[in-house]
Here is the input.
Amino acid sequence: MLLRNAWYIAAWADEIGGEQPLARRICNEPIVLFRDSTGRAAALADRCCHRAAPLHMGTVVKEGIQCGYHGLVIDGYGRCVRIPGQRLIPEAQLYRSRKRPVGVGLDGRPGESRHGNHRRLSLP
Here is the structure.
């Protein structure tokens, strides 16, 4: 039995970075790890808010992670920040991303790096 409200090592700090996101499974939940353009590590549920495509199959871009299916860009907090072919993001999409975040950030808080590994709070 795994404790869901506990700290788990998700990855070594040097495993997270570059253009390819890192897929992990913690407490039987698919998670994707990546660093944004500022170097801040992020952890999201490994699914796009649009069609639930696995985000680890996408690419890390300046604003966050870009879904490989339709190209939506999700930031490290789980908010949709760019939709291809649209100048504005519909209010419903912004609300949906905040209310039912793709981001687990695993609780919305930034991760910690200690002793060369990256730790995240597990899914609530």
